[in-house]
Design goal:
Layout (H helix, E strand, L loop, with lengths): L27 E6 L9 H12 L5 E8 L20 E5 L4 H18 L27 H14 L9 H14 L4 E6 L3 H13 L3 E5 L14 H17 L2 E4 L2 H10 L6 E3 L22 E6 L5 H17 L7 E6 L4 H12 L7 E5 L3 H10 L2 E5 L12 H8 L4 E4 L4 H9 L3 E3 L3 H11 L17 H37 L2
Parallel strand pairs: 1-2, 1-4, 2-3, 4-5, 5-6, 6-7, 8-9, 8-11, 9-10, 11-12, 12-13
């Protein structure tokens, strides 16, 4: 059996020939607990579906457990085309916070329709509720959202997807009982995926590989929660680390953070995010003289401070060089979270920014990749703050896969180090003055002439092979554990004999 690569190890040059191999004629089976799977879209789905695609080339046959109807807003049905008909997909029921909220809103709407309208005194009219029911008004009153949030925080724990757990676990147990699996793999968030896999291991003894795409505790992105929830989350995380046979992280700093938190653990491995060569897209945009320099951002906008800092830097540049309002355009492709919507609206209304920035909303993945290929530079936004350096935005790898010039507003940390290691992109710290200088600089650079990742270190086919090696190591660790338990049972029996 092969061992997983050490924490900071990278594949060697020439390892991108994984596709030239042939599937093992008698593959072993990995049950993959994947909340993010087509038709759900997003970068997490991209990682999952490519692992499902490439694991068979390393002797592993995937069986996917996923919700039939995930309460997740980002849907991309075109990704279903990437799921081979030969892949066994178990789609289960799931009762999530998003489902419950939709039901509550539907019931509230029905009640309002049936109830006769009675005018309220002018002094009691509320701009937030529009004169409707504060509990169920579809306009999104602060009172209703606050109440639902508080209830959700206590009922749906550890995350909004916990109602998927019984259905996913039952499907996994049935599948193992019908045709035994060799290992179970789960990736989080949601952390419920780990609960499904961990309980399956406890019930069956099947080895378990748990993947943390991001840190779960102790970062700037962790939302404030009651002290009891914090204690329970810490215990759950410790249980995951102790129970899993292998634990995968996507960034070296995250692995080091967890190594310091759990010094007893020796089963950590880093398998970063990556890109798929089959998604490399030629530009369809003509290079006519006098066209605007186009910077494209793809993905959800949900952290206000990042958008604010970038737009302030852009506004500084346009104030100093007003002629650039006719020479530059910045296009945001992706959903805009309500926390960022007001910032986007102000930018649209600005005399300067309104002529340069454009928010086009969510587009399917293939359209986003085409937009990146047609751009002059692709934008990454990551704000400053405690532990923010452990994050590497998944879109960064999509940009590398396109060998597109990158404008990265990121703090010192793993994303910064990755770009410096590859000698790629223009990097700015999350500061308006730094952003101003970086935008001006990227506009002067020639178009890249070579690949961003010539050695294929972040090719998903290579990374899937490293995951296969990690599955091998988990099976071997599970086998040793069972052998040790057998020896102990035999020794105990012998010790008890006269």
């Amino acid at each position: 059996m092969t061992q997983p690569a050490p924490l900071d190890a990278q594949p060697q040059a020439g390892e991108t020939k994984v596709q030239d191999a042939r599937p093992d004629p008698s593959p072993r089976t990995v049950l993959m607990v994947l909340y993010f799977f087509p038709p759900v879209g997003g970068i997490s789905t991209s990682r999952n579906i490519r692992n499902v695609q490439y694991l068979p080339w390393s002797g592993w046959s995937p069986v996917v457990v996923t919700p039939a109807e995930a309460a997740y807003d980002v849907k991309d049905p075109s990704l279903l085309e990437l799921v081979s008909p030969s892949v066994e997909v178990l789609r289960t029921r799931s009762v999530e916070a998003g489902h419950v909220r939709a039901w509550v809103m539907a019931i509230g709407s029905a009640l309002r329709l049936r109830r006769p309208r009675r005018p309220r005194p002018p002094e009691t009219q509320s701009a937030d509720t529009g004169g409707g029911s504060a509990a169920f008004d579809a306009t999104g009153s602060k009172e209703r959202d606050g109440l639902l949030f508080r209830l959700r925080r206590f009922v749906f724990f550890p995350d909004d997807q916990v109602g998927w757990l019984p259905f996913a676990l039952r499907a996994a147990l049935r599948r193992h009982g019908t045709a035994p699996i060799d290992v179970v793999y789960s990736t989080a968030s949601p952390i419920t995926s780990h609960l499904v896999a961990g309980l399956l291991k406890q019930r069956t003894g099947v080895p378990w590989v748990a993947e943390f795409r991001d840190p779960w505790l102790g970062t700037a992105l962790s939302k404030p929660i009651p002290w009891l929830h914090r204690r329970i989350k810490a215990k759950v995380e410790r249980w995951i680390i102790r129970t899993a046979d292998q634990v995968v992280f996507l960034a070296p700093s995250t692995a080091r953070m967890y190594q310091e938190r759990y010094p007893f653990a020796s089963n950590f491995v880093v398998i970063p995010n990556g890109y798929d060569r089959s998604e490399a897209t030629p530009s369809a945009r003509t290079r006519e003289a006098g066209r605007r320099f186009r910077i494209v951002y793809t993905g959800l906008l949900f952290r206000p401070i990042e958008l604010t800092v970038f737009l302030e830097g852009l506004d500084r540049l346009l104030t100093r060089r007003p002629e650039l309002t006719d020479e530059l355009e910045v296009v945001f492709l992706g959903s805009v979270d309500p926390t960022c919507q007001e910032i986007a609206d102000r930018a649209r209304a600005s005399d300067r920014l309104g002529r340069v920035v454009e928010f086009q909303g969510y587009v399917p993945r293939r359209d986003a990749l085409q937009a990146v290929a047609d751009a002059d530079a692709a934008l990454v936004l990551l704000g400053a703050g405690p532990s923010m350096g452990v994050y590497i935005p998944g879109k960064l790898f999509d940009y590398l896969g396109q060998s597109q010039q990158i404008l990265a507003m990121v703090p010192r940390g793993d994303a910064w180090n990755l770009l410096e290691e590859l000698g790629w992109g223009v990097i700015a710290e999350p500061d308006p003055a730094e952003v101003e200088r970086a935008i001006e600089r990227v506009m002067t650079l020639p178009r890249p002439s070579g690949p961003a990742d010539p050695d294929g270190r972040y090719d998903r086919a290579v990374l899937a092979r490293r995951l296969a090696e990690t599955l091998d190591a988990a099976v071997e660790a599970g086998s040793r554990s069972r052998d040790t338990a057998t020896v102990r049972r035999v020794a105990d029996r012998a010790a008890g004999e006269p």
